[in-house]
Amino acid sequence: MARIAGVNIPTNKRVEIALTYIHGIGRTKATEITGKLGIAPERRVQDLSDQEVLQIRETIDADLTVEGDLRRQTAMNIKRLMDLACYRGLRHRKGLPVRGQRTHTNARTRKGKAKPIAGKKK
Predict the structure, then answer these.
(1) What does the domain layout of the chain look like in residue ranges?
(2) Would you state the pLDDT for residue 55?
(3) Structure pTM?
């Protein structure tokens, strides 16, 4: 099992798909990495040599922010907005949708399960 950026990537999948298991790498970046290193897209992770895995690991370390660093950076950005008390920060703080979605109905993912209100029926 190959370990890249602190993540065990699945061995039986194609390299492009397996790289997407790393937080911060999607299909586009995975295709870019394999193209840059000259690895055929249809190859499986189990067929890679140790040298190729090492090349992938070095490329990701050099060029991309992934996993823990990316999560920390995102959390710090949200914390900064909350500390500024700007509109987006207040929405994060209250646990409501941040990007202008309606909340009268819907928004259940952010607001949580609907709570019944006593005496509301009429």
Answers:
(1) 3-67, 85-121
(2) 94
(3) 0.80
